[in-house]
Design a protein that fits this description.
Helix content is 32%, strand content 38%. It is an alpha+beta fold.
Length: 123
């Protein structure tokens, strides 16, 4: 299996994976991260938040946190024996003091393709 978690574990926001059959489920898997904005981005972002529009410093922190939560979710699914996570969801909460919790969760499962490639024709 590949060590690159983004290719090793299939993910779906639905409870099936088109073109695959679910062979077994292992229960809930999750990936969790608590992030701080940091002083530099916090000051810059706070100043920019005084005017309307996107605050890219905060967007970047949240986007990075979601990616990390997904990587941890996929790793947890592999630890449980799965090669897929079905019903993927995100949740977040403000912990105060500039800290935010981001969690990605779903059902760890083993899936296999419905079809396998046929034998290669002899040349």
């Amino acid at each position: 299996m590949s060590t690159d978690l983004t290719t090793a574990v299939a993910t779906s926001t639905t409870f099936d994976l088109p073109g695959h059959t679910v062979e077994r489920t292992y229960g809930m898997a999750w990936g969790l991260i608590v992030r701080s904005v940091g002083i530099a981005k916090g000051i810059t972002g706070s100043v920019k938040s005084l005017r309307a529009g996107e605050v890219r410093e905060f967007t970047q922190v949240v986007d990075t946190a979601r990616h990390t939560a997904m990587e941890r979710l996929m790793a947890h699914a592999q630890e449980l024996g799965g090669n897929a996570v079905l019903g993927v969801r995100f949740d977040s909460s403000d912990l105060g003091n500039g800290l935010a919790e981001i969690v990605a969760y779903g059902t760890a499962a083993t899936v296999r393709p419905l079809w396998a490639p046929g034998p290669t024709a002899a040349r």
